[in-house]
Design a protein that fits this description.
Helix content: over 70%
Number of strands: 0
Number of helices: 3
Structural class: mainly alpha
Distance between the termini: 17 Å
Order of helices and strands: HHH
Oligomer: single chain
């Protein structure tokens, strides 16, 4: 993911799961790889969609 997509991913995760702390999402979920099991499937979907969007933007 490029920088913009990473930032969008953080915001999407925060909104999707009603989380208060962007820092927690970044440090625990993204860097630490400790995504709660209940959220893993949806997180993968969000990341895949964001990467598709990033690739589409790159192609134009």
């Amino acid at each position: 993911m490029n920088h913009n997509t990473k930032e969008e991913a953080l915001l999407c995760l925060k909104k999707e799961f009603n989380l208060q702390s962007r820092k927690l999402v970044k440090n625990e979920w993204i860097i630490g790889g400790r995504i709660p099991e209940a959220y893993q499937g949806r997180t993968v979907e969000l990341f895949q969609n964001l990467l598709r969007k990033q690739q589409a933007m790159k192609a134009t």
